[in-house]
Write a structure and sequence with these properties.
With 341 residues, this protein is α/β, with parallel strands linked by helices. 52% of the residues lie in helices and 10% in strands. It has a domain at 109-306: Alpha/beta knot, CATH 3.40.1280. The chain is built from 11 helices and 10 strands. The protein starts with a helix and ends with a helix. This is tRNA methyltransferase 10 homolog A.
């Protein structure tokens, strides 16, 4: 019995040792990741490898960008030092960007009359919006910016501007007015620019307000701006286009073309230079006296000028002529029939 009691603690100690060894082996198995027949990696080793890989990846991506940025800064600083050295030596600095003189604003007022909103389809309103954007851009970069007015501003045009170009509310030096132009400006100062007027404009009076009809109508409403000027009893005139330019397409110009021509005239003080600054290689325009070159001109028009519609109308007219000609040929009796008769 004594021997049995003495053997029991020894058995218990051995069982505890076996249990501890099993727990340690289980921990080792949890800490290692089996990779098939290859060596096993501990979690610590795996984290270290991932950390090293991430640091190398960051260096590969970030360092080149940083170096490029640093080189740009160095080149910029070098150009700045060169300009300063040339300025000190009194030499004229010639850069890629042309030197721009400070603008001298003109007192002339240019008004776009947007009261024809209900006469246009939505696609035409969008075209007018693009033309107005061009007018604004040109007025911002010209040497003699005019006083720019958009009157009767509302309806479809305002909706399109709110949807497509919400930044219009931040436009500088533009007067947006929901009222009609003759309600906010003096009638004696107004001159409506319309190609149907018998009066030809020879000079620009910078005390006047020149009105441009904001209408893209595909020639569906001919003479409507002239009728509006007569109805209001205000002065009207047309640009001296026929005195300087011959074109092989329609004489009516887009809103932005009229706007740009007036800006060019304020800078150059010459109508012919102003016309060909804006109309160069458009509509096949050539100076008066060089009509023999009219056919050689480029007949390409801006997308704003609805060339697709004009071509469609011309095609329809030619098709109708061909159709009528075929009918006439059908009704004509043959020569044999005439001889028999």
């Amino acid at each position: 019995m004594a021997t049995d009691l003495a053997d029991k603690p020894a058995v218990q100690e051995s069982s505890h040792k076996c249990a501890n060894s099993e727990n340690e082996s289980a921990k080792d198995e949890n800490e290692t990741v089996q990779t098939g027949e290859t060596e096993t990696l501990s979690k610590r080793q795996k984290k270290r490898l991932l950390k090293n890989f991430a640091s190398k990846l960051c260096k590969a991506l970030i360092v080149p960008c940083f170096m490029k940025r640093q080189k740009r800064k160095e080149r910029k600083q070098q150009r700045k030092l060169e300009r300063q050295a040339q300025a000190e030596d009194g030499a004229e600095w010639t850069a890629k960007k042309r030197l721009r003189r400070s603008p001298e604003p003109s007192s002339l007022r240019l008004v776009i009359d947007c009261s024809f909103d209900n006469l246009m389809l939505l696609k035409d309103v969008k075209k007018l919006h693009k033309q107005i954007q061009r007018c604004y851009a040109e007025n911002r970069r010209t040497l003699h910016p005019v006083q720019f007015y958009l009157t009767s501003h509302g309806g479809q045009l305002k909706q399109v501007m709110d949807e497509i170009n919400k930044g219009w509310v931040n436009w500088k030096d533009v007067h947006f007015r929901p009222d009609a132009f003759h309600e906010i400006l003096k009638e004696e100062d107004l001159v409506y620019l319309t190609s149907d007027s018998p009066h030809v404009l020879q000079e620009l009076d910078e005390a006047k307000a020149y009105v441009i009809g904001g209408l893209v109508d595909h020639n569906h409403h001919k003479g409507i701006t002239f009728d509006r000027a007569q109805e209001l009893g205000i002065a009207h005139a047309q640009l001296p286009l026929g005195s300087f330019v011959k074109m092989n397409s329609r004489k009516v110009l887009a809103v932005n073309h009229v706007f740009e021509i007036i800006l060019a005239f304020l800078e150059k003080r010459d109508w012919q230079d102003a016309f060909f600054t804006v109309l160069a290689q458009r509509k096949g325009a050539v100076p008066v006296g060089q009509e023999n070159k009219l056919g050689e001109g480029n007949d390409e028009e801006d997308s704003d000028e609805d060339s697709d519609t004009e071509h469609l109308i011309s095609e329809k007219s030619t098709d109708s002529k061909d159709h009528l000609g075929s009918k006439e040929e059908e009704h004509k009796p043959d020569s044999s029939e005439q001889n028999a008769a």
